[in-house]
Amino acid sequence: MRRCYFDHVATNPLDARVFDAMLPYFKEEFGNPLSMYELGSKAKEAIENARGQVASLTNSKASEIIFTASGAESNNFALRGIALARQNEGKHVIVSRMEHHSILNSARFLEKMGFVVTYLPVDKHGVVDPDTVKKAITKETTLISVTHASSEVGTIEPIKEIADIAREKKIIFHTDAVATTGNIPINIKELGVDLLSMAAHQFYGPKGAGALYVREGLRIVPLIYGGIQENGRRAGTENVPAIVGMGRAAELAGSEMNSRMEHVGRLRDKLLNIKASVENVHLTGHPDNRLPGHASFCVEFIEGEAMLLLLAAKGVYAASGSACSSKALKASPVLLSMGLPSSLAQGSIVFTLGKDNSDEDIEYLLAEFPQVIKRLREISPYGKGWGIEGEGGQCIVQK
Amino acid sequence: MYSAKVMDHFSNPRNVGDMPDADGVGTEGNPTCGDVMQIFIKVKDGRIVDIKFKTFGCGAAIAVSSMITEMAKGKTLDEALTISKESVANELEGLPPQKMHCSNLGADALKKAIEDYKSKNK
Ligand code: FES
Description:
The structure holds two protein chains of two kinds. Chain A is an alpha/beta fold. Chain A contains 13 helices and twelve strands. A seven-stranded mixed sheet of chain A has the order 2-8-7-6-5-3-4, with helices on both faces. Chain A is globular, with a radius of gyration of 22 Å. Chain B is an alpha+beta fold. Chain B is built from five helices and three strands. Chain B has helices at 4-11, 59-72, 77-81, 85-91, 100-120; strands spanning 24-29, 36-44, 47-56. Chain B has a three-stranded antiparallel sheet. The radius of gyration of chain B is 13 Å and the shape is globular. The model of chain B has no long low-confidence stretch (mean pLDDT 93). At the A-B interface, helix 10 of A face helix 1, strand 1, strand 2, strand 3 and helix 2 of B. The complex binds FE2/S2 (inorganic) cluster (FES). The site of FE2/S2 (inorganic) cluster has 9 residues of chain B, from helix 2. FE2/S2 (inorganic) cluster binds at residues 30, 33, 35, 57-58, 60-61, 99, 102 of chain B.
């Protein structure tokens, strides 16, 4: 059976060239970077080389990159680290409703510690209006965090505009760039952000490697205390192979950026043809200003988990933000914050493409997916609309 | 995450469809995730002689609907009323804990269909 992996926001396959770069650091070059002898200094060198590679992908300085174990750790570190470092100046933090759980749950943690958090609304495309940021700012505000792009709907946010507003008010600005780093060009100096989170497995690097960019001179309270690794800002013996892998993945992402974007963008546009062949399928997120390999829809009258199961049976792997597909049985807050009715959010399906996907993969999906939709619609009591016959025609899902 | 039985009933659901001349109809919505299950029954001499369903919901909800229609078919109304979320889940060789409420939906929709029939045939 054909296997089509369309869930690159979940994780990416490891690039074979990245794997090759990592291998020696599992075995021969196993040293602790803090050790004085050659084994240690070689590991140290490898880490610093990787730091340079990540810095050059994002147009920052190597000294501004702190390695972490994941995008989630970077987000936790940024939110807590800055809020705590500046708590004498104020205890108000602003985040958007498009954020990943690692931002939202860090914000909730801060609320428990006595901080006040404002959650910014978004428009129907999931865009944060910089004006709402301006209005949310108070004298107490010390930190703003808005994602660079939502992995659920692909919308790219106006980060530069928001960063300008923050700088003018002397507020620290963080962006979660886990979904964008390595996938679209990131120029930190141009974006004007103070902190930026990234994760290696989102650009064909290994899991277990992330990084936080922290602008030179910015004070941040560590998340993990211990030794002097990462200049005392992130203790713990470094995961050398993973860091080396992140560096190599960054290097490859930088040199292949244009061709990868062109490739996944073209395939994505081909995939969007599904809207022409099946009725009542809606694109979620911004129609143009979105991640190049990202296609997210809401399919009316059917539910996402059921779609995922039937697709998986055909070897197609995707994601959904439906309530039934989540452990907590709650619809994706991102979809609801864009004003989607919960009935429509139930039909969420997300395809995220990668460099190794082919035209044949998309053709296979375009042939199989309409059948999946048709089958589930035959089972659904809805069809001619959201009313159920004999129920007065009202949408009982939305009650 | 699902048993082979669940996957079988989900992939090849039995008794799917409308029943325009149904003797009883039961519709149940799921307050947790907003899903809907509809069961239609045809009754003769106190027995369920035909049964159909329509479901808007997850894989478990579809499997539950399919299974419950199989279980209820041919049963007397009183026998059918004893079908519970546990007995459906057992027949399906178990459901993940967070999916037990989908099983509830099936048992309740069937109950409503039987009540609907009874109220029309007093
Ligand atoms: S119907 Fe929503 S979880 Fe089963």
